[in-house]
Amino acid sequence: MSAHNFKNKWFYFALFAWGGLILLTLVWDGLLFPLYYMMLIKLILLALPLRGIVAGRVYTFQYCSMLILAFFTEGVMRVVGQNVWGQTLAATEIALSVAFFVSCLAYLKQFKIKKVKTK
After folding, report:
1. How far apart are CA 20 and CA 12, in angstroms?
2. What CA–CA distance (Å, rounded) separates 56 from 53?
3. How deeply is 16 buried, as exposed, middle or buried, from its count of CB atoms within 10 A (0-12, 13-18, 19+)?
4. What is the DSSP letter of 113?
5. Which helix (H) or strand (E) holds 7?
6. Do 90 and 79 touch, CB atoms closer than 8 A?
7. Which of 6, 38, 41, 75 has the highest CB neighbour number within 10 Å of its CB?
């Protein structure tokens, strides 16, 4: 199901957060603290659903709302054992993943089918 007519501020917040995670991965794992295998894995996970996110597809947002929890967990794990810069970047990853999750749920709320109670 496409949502071309239903794009609202939550869609754009989610898109911004997803793009922020891509940029953060490139900067963090590519330039500042090179972990190329980690960067490759994360970029593949972020790039595969990008077309569906940009298009506003409901199904893509539904499974990305679960996929983003892996990034949240990675941020929580890396915030503990890093230096100050690493902790700041990990906190940014946590904030972006929470922002995506919340805006994703708010965006998907408009597509919820309301069931009518019958007696």
Report:
1. 12
2. 5
3. middle
4. P
5. none
6. yes
7. 75
DSSP character at residue 116: P
Task: Name the pTM for this structure.
Answer: 0.87
For 31, the token pair is 């330039």
Per-domain residue ranges of the chain: 8-109
Residue by residue, pLDDT tens for the chain (119 residues) are 444 556 789 999 999 999 999 999 999 999 998 888 989 999 999 999 999 999 999 999 999 999 999 999 999 999 998 889 999 999 999 999 999 999 999 999 988 876 556 65
Q: Quick check: helix, strand or coil at residue 2?
A: coil
List, in order, residues 6 or more apart from 58 with CB less than 8 Å away: 1, 3, 108, 111
Residues present in the chain in total: 119
> What tokens appear for 16 in the block?
């911004």
Three-class HEC string of 23-64: HHHHHHHHHHCCCHHHHHHHHHHHHCCHHHHHHCCHHHHHHH
